[in-house]
Structure prediction request, 79 residues.
Amino acid sequence: MLGRREANSAHDERDQLIALRSERLSGYILAVGVFAGIVLAMLDAAAFWIGQTLVAAWVLAEVSEGISKLLQYRRGTRP
Prediction:
């Protein structure tokens, strides 16, 4: 009861685990998108399509990270 500030600043171990798992999935998706952009550059595609591929990969990675976090919080995780 005396250490209320310390109690509010403590983070749950599950929060960190969920964040790490979500970021790992997001990183994989982003890596695939960047690789696709590199392949397009090697095939001499227009700069527009290379840029669009990279931006789409970035957006898809961020959206998948958020969805993954929501699903893991909803389902619960095992430490």
Q: What stands out?
A: The first helix runs from residue 4 to 9.
